[in-house]
Design brief:
The complex is a heterodimer of chains A (366) and B (790). Chain A has 366 residues and is of the alpha+beta class. Chain A is built from 13 helices and 17 strands. Chain A starts with 8 loop residues before the first strand and ends with a helix. Classes of the chains: A alpha+beta (366), B alpha/beta (790). Chains A and B meet through α4, β13, α7, β15 and α11 of A and β10, α5, α7, β12 and α8 of B.
């Protein structure tokens, strides 16, 4: 008999670019409870579950909702909500208006923003954050979501024939015995973790060339203003006009080193020439940026996997949201350059694992 | 618009030739039109084309590197005994000196902008007289593009070689042959360039070539290497993406922008994500969390400088990270970086070094090469020259004919606005005999010949540069005077003076230009410059005269030594050796005395010596060793000066060693330097002494006294580059005592050299500054007897 946890149950992950919020909506509220439920709590529940968008930038990823989950003895649905980090003050303001501080709960938060906004939560919202380690939360979240599955489907999947638009298939992958695995979290930046067991992991390395770099460079190069717009442009562009390929230098494959002609020899290498700079479109530039960042992450992940002697690489993080170009490229590159030794895996809830982990921490702590 | 022949003359415009007033400067991508409006000066670049053969060319994105092999004819002084057959002619001199022509092999490398390629090819064609060459080896991305032009202009068939194979061949070659080729870069230390001692075994290593993309190659043996990885994020990404972001077209200008920018305005740092409290991850707040993370907004403008800086960091960090991951996987701790991204750019060397230190936590070292830009050309050349067996020889950098590191770096010469129109040169001389380590070195991998690193020690650098400047006039005068019969001697001496003066000015600005700056390198550079202007041995006549005078005194000195008892004789021998060492034309204080006091002799020199206790005095230990220990098996002596030094100082000492049962290997320089005794002079001197002295005579006959050459032509001594024959003999004879004599060999170099056997280092300090530094006065005596610790 665990100590009863007071609602509401939230998990918050405040990243460099996006805030991820998971909310457990209890569906087994008894009449007695309903009676007892204070107005503030009810209003929060209604607000979150009856909307799919909050303000101008908050979005609930309805398609990710986990239904009929049993958590800490309670049945309910898990909701996944995100909004830009720069709207954090508005979020705190809203919490203050909804008298969040009057509720018997702790707000568990992870990500760098848990530190950055701690003071604001205290002063503006009269709220004490419980700060949690982001890597602990990430791993906890991944393992939990994978174990409960995605409404009867597999959370984990991989791509078969990733480069063939006709034959490419997204197939479920059973992560029952997950260890060891390399976890690559691509947010604004990238963190790479080697996970050996539930609580034995290490941060192997990271790179500053991540989702923030893709989006940041796209803004500078194309004038786009949203991640979605950047991805949409990329989907219509041709990176081979921007990049210099092996075949552009050697006329074909570079056999001396076993390099295929299609491989990129120099990202943006063609842009050294004025004529070529003038002949490429914004879409081409967006595509090249996406390919550059994705290939680089693949390359670093592959080297880490080799150094750590791990052959399963799980990619997560919001960079992959609605970004099949990158996922398929990672799947292909990892397989090709490792000669089939490495497998790229993906998870449906991409960027929400830190927030899920924070929620789980809330329920674990007394 | 002028074109500068910017070879070694830092910042000095040599108006040797000029360009027509039309534009068309290359720079940047260099894919522009060819510039035909320059006239090249025949004797300054593309030298010795008359005898050139075996051409190779490496055409990169913007620079062309041409390599050829030529034979250089130059004068050498030869000494020869007079013919004694029959007549009893009494000669004033002990031997005759003749000047002869000698032919040596030299490798020439010239680097210039692609825009001048046509002019250069025309020039080569016009001056190429005597060659049976039919093909030119070509490598580099531009080899395709210029193939037809080269074949048409030169009438040679272009034979293409693989870029990476050439690069690695070239890399191995410089690693083996050029001292101080490798350096680590440390921006924030006093010495930006930390040159490395050449390790006897250069393999295995990782070569990371950052051209438009990045290639990571593991080199395991001379001909065994493997492409283990790469990255598409390289120099082309910096350039291409940089051009898009900043509208700045040239690579160098982008780097300039980057060096002025603040990346923190564009990058999202850890502290931007975490606010003030970022300690949790154990990360520093200034680390970049997301490159360009702050530019993810449509409504803000970013400065060109800041974006360029952010881009530079992003690319350097990424390359460094991948390089470390590959180094770790292959268990390597040395990474050499090359490619145009690195070439001569302190900015990128700095960021790459930072990145390697960060990602490897200091376990891997980022290393750079002085001649990195020439590797491809060297390799292509070697490919074509296999029948000449260049790898079987030892080669030496010719300081007179080489431009030095960063002769054209815009970062270091802000006055010089552009790298355009500059010609960089690198020359290597083939050494007659292979050079190896002295087998008696305690640890050849940590041996550093030079006592003071003048790149490190600004005070000492200033002193010595001034010292060499002040002595230059005298050196030039003596050089001219040494060839009284030559009509152009004065003119050549002036040219020599100008050239060496310019070298000294370059070294004032860029002390790292030729590796670690040392008194040795200053002396060697002077010798190279003298040779360049056909003054192979300015002191030959002086040496001849002094040898003659000293030989006449030899018997008297021996008689007086023999009259002493054993103990007195030992001290007299050492004093004689030291007094002999006063006669050094390389020391200004002495050359002044020698020029003014013609009667200055052995006894006068003895009177100049410091009284005991000497500045460094382990004479008592030496005497005890002689008294109590068994005689040494074999002594190796490195001699210093001609005349009184070798004849009245060294030979009596040798004679005593021989008499006590010790064999002696007497090592003298292969080629002339100052008034140092050369090997061929030592042979004649020994012959003359043998005629007067039975001990020397029988020792020579029985091969208990062996005369050998060092393989060097330097007034200093590098024990890691000695004649192979000497090294073999040292091993065969089980040498257990090394005697190093003179300021150049025992103080400027080897003062701290650790040997496996007993050693004596002795010298008279003939320079008041140096004496003061060591805590003494001019003519202080160093007598350092060392026994290796067990």
């Amino acid at each position: 008999n665990k100590k009863k946890k007071f609602f509401p149950w939230f998990g918050l992950d405040i990243g460099g670019t996006l805030v991820k919020l998971v909310y457990f909506e209890p569906k087994d509220i008894t009449a007695e409870e309903e009676e007892e439920e204070v107005e503030n709590l009810k209003s929060i529940r209604k607000y979150l579950t009856s909307n799919v968008a909050y303000g101008s930038t908050g979005i609930r990823d309805v398609h990710l909702e986990l239904k009929d989950l049993t958590l800490c003895g309670r049945k309910g649905n898990l909701h996944f909500i995100r909004f830009p980090t720069h709207d954090m003050p508005a979020f705190i303001q809203m919490g203050s208006e909804k008298h969040f501080s009057s509720l018997h709960t702790t707000l568990c938060a992870t990500g760098g923003g848990a530190y950055k906004f701690e003071q604001d939560f205290r002063t503006m919202g009269d709220l004490q954050l419980q700060k949690l380690d982001e890597l602990d939360c990430l791993i906890k979240g991944v393992l939990y979501i994978d174990s409960v599955g995605f409404n009867g489907h597999s959370e984990c999947y991989y791509f078969e024939n990733p480069t063939d638009s006709e034959k490419c298939e997204k197939l479920p992958f059973n992560l029952e015995n997950p260890y060891p695995l390399l976890l690559v979290n691509i947010g604004s930046g990238v963190s790479i973790l080697a996970v050996y067991s539930k609580d034995n992991y290490k941060r192997v390395t990271g790179t500053s060339l991540g989702g923030g770099t893709f989006f940041g460079l796209c803004c500078l190069l194309t004038g786009c203003s949203t991640f979605e717009e950047a991805l949409e442009m990329a989907s219509r562009g041709d990176s081979t006009k921007v990049d210099k390929l092996v075949r552009d230098i050697y006329g074909g494959d570079y056999e001396r080193f076993g390099l295929p002609g299609w491989a990129v020899a120099s990202s943006f290498g063609n842009m050294v020439s004025k004529e070529k700079r003038e002949s490429v479109s914004k879409e081409d530039l967006a595509r090249a940026t996406l390919i550059t960042i994705t290939n680089n992450i693949g390359s670093i992940a592959r080297m880490c996997a080799l150094n750590e002697n791990i052959n399963r690489v799980v990619f997560v993080g919001n960079f992959l949201r609605i970004n099949t170009i990158s996922m398929r490229l990672l799947a292909y590159a990892l397989n090709y350059w490792s000669k089939g030794q490495l497998k790229a895996l993906f998870l449906e809830h991409e960027g929400y694992f830190g927030a899920v982990g924070a929620l789980l921490e809330l329920l674990d702590t007394a | 618009m002028r074109i500068y022949l910017h070879t070694d003359e830092a910042g000095q415009e040599r108006g040797a030739f000029k360009m027509a007033a039309r534009g068309g400067r290359g720079g940047g991508s260099g894919h522009g039109s060819l510039d035909k409006s320059i006239t090249l000066p025949p004797d300054e670049i593309f030298r010795n084309l008359e005898n050139a053969k075996r051409f190779a060319i490496d055409i990169g994105g913007s620079l062309t590197k041409l390599a050829y092999y030529s034979t250089v004819q130059h004068k050498v002084a030869r000494v020869r005994s007079f013919d004694h057959s029959g007549k009893d002619i009494e000669h004033e001199s002990p031997y005759e000196v003749t000047v002869q022509e000698e032919i040596t092999a030299r490798l020439h490398f010239i680097k210039f902008e692609n825009t001048y390629i046509e002019t250069c090819l025309d020039f080569i064609k016009d001056h190429l007289v005597n060659t049976e060459t039919k093909v030119i080896k070509a490598t580099g991305g531009g080899a395709y593009k210029f193939k037809d032009l080269i074949e048409k202009k030169l009438g040679l068939k272009v034979d293409k070689e693989d870029v990476m194979t050439c690069l690695i061949k070239g890399c191995n070659f410089v690693l083996k042959n050029i001292p101080h080729e490798v350096f680590a870069y440390q921006k924030d230390s006093d010495t930006e360039f930390r040159f490395q001692t050449n390790h006897p075994n250069i393999f295995p290593y990782l070569l990371v070539n950052i051209g438009s993309g990045v290639s990571i190659v593991k080199v395991e043996m001379e001909d065994k290497f493997e492409w283990i990885g790469g990255s598409s994020i390289g120099g082309g990404t910096f350039w291409g993406l940089g051009a898009l972001l900043t509208k700045t077209k040239k690579f160098d200008e982008l780097l300039q922008l980057a060096s002025k920018g603040q990346h923190t305005n564009v990058d999202m740092l850890v502290k931007d994500v975490y606010g003030g409290a970022y300690q949790t991850l154990g990360l520093s707040g200034n680390l970049i969390a997301s490159s360009f993370g702050k530019s993810a907004t449509a409504d803000k403008d970013f400065s060109k400088e800041d974006m360029a800086k952010s881009l530079l960091h992003m690319i350097s960090n990424d390359i460094g990270q991948l390089a470390c991951l590959y180094a770790k996987l292959h268990n390597l701790d040395k990474i050499y970086f090359g490619g145009f991204f690195i070439r001569g750019h302190p900015v990128t060397m700095r960021t790459i070094t930072y990145s390697i230190n960060f990602f490897s936590k200091g376990e891997v070292q980022a290393l750079f090469l002085r001649h990195e830009g020439y590797l491809g050309a060297i390799g292509a050349f070697l490919k074509g020259a296999e029948q000449d067996n260049p790898n079987q020889y030892s080669w030496g950098e010719n300081y007179a004919g080489s431009s030095g590191l960063m002769s054209t770096s815009p970062d270091l010469c802000p006055m010089q606005r552009t790298r355009s129109g500059t010609f960089d040169m690198f020359e290597m001389d083939r050494l007659e005999r292979p050079l190896v380590n002295l087998p008696l070195l305690k640890d050849s991998s940590t041996y550093i010949p030079d006592t003071v690193d003048l790149t490190d020690d600004a005070m000492a650098r200033k002193y010595w540069l001034t010292c060499f400047e002040e002595a230059l006039d005298g050196v030039a005068k003596r050089a001219a005077a040494s060839q009284p019969d030559s009509i152009d001697a004065v003119e050549r001496a002036e040219k020599f003076q100008q050239k060496y003066w310019n070298k000294l000015q370059t070294l004032r600005q860029q002390p790292f230009a030729y590796g670690t700056l040392t008194v040795r390198s200053l002396l060697d550079t002077r010798e190279h410059c003298l040779n360049e202007f056909n003054f192979p041995d300015p002191y030959s006549k002086i040496k001849q005269k002094e040898n003659g005078i000293a030989l006449k005194c030899f018997q008297g000195v021996i008689e007086s030594l023999d009259s002493l008892d054993w103990k007195e004789r030992q001290l007299a021998l050492v004093k004689g050796l030291l007094a002999g060492n006063v006669f050094d034309w390389g020391a200004k204080a002495v050359s002044d005395v020698l020029e003014s006091e013609t009667q200055f002799g052995f006894e006068e020199a003895k009177s100049k010596l410091q009284e005991r206790p000497w500045l460094e005095d382990s004479y008592d230990e030496w005497l005890d060793r002689l008294k109590e220990g068994p005689p040494h098996k074999c002594a190796l002596i490195f001699a210093d000066n001609s005349g009184i030094d070798i004849i009245l100082g060294v030979f009596p000492f040798v004679r005593e060693l021989l008499s006590s049962g010790t064999e002696v290997i007497l090592a003298c320089n292969s080629g002339p330097a100052l008034n140092d005794v050369t090997y061929s002079e030592s042979l004649i001197v020994a012959e003359k002494i043998a005629a007067m002295d039975s001990v020397i005579q029988s020792a020579l006959k029985e091969e208990r006294l062996l005369l050998v050459q060092t393989g060097s032509s330097s007034p200093c001594l590098d024990l890691s580059r000695l004649d192979k024959g000497l090294a073999m003999l040292v091993r065969e004879r089980k040498t257990d005592l090394v005697i190093i004599e003179g300021m150049g060999r025992a103080i400027h170099t080897n003062y701290y050299a650790a040997l496996k056997c007993e050693s004596l280092k002795l010298a008279v300090i003939k320079n008041s500054w140096l004496a003061e530094r060591l805590g003494g006065k001019i003519f202080s005596v160093i007598f350092k007897y060392e026994v290796p610790r067990e």
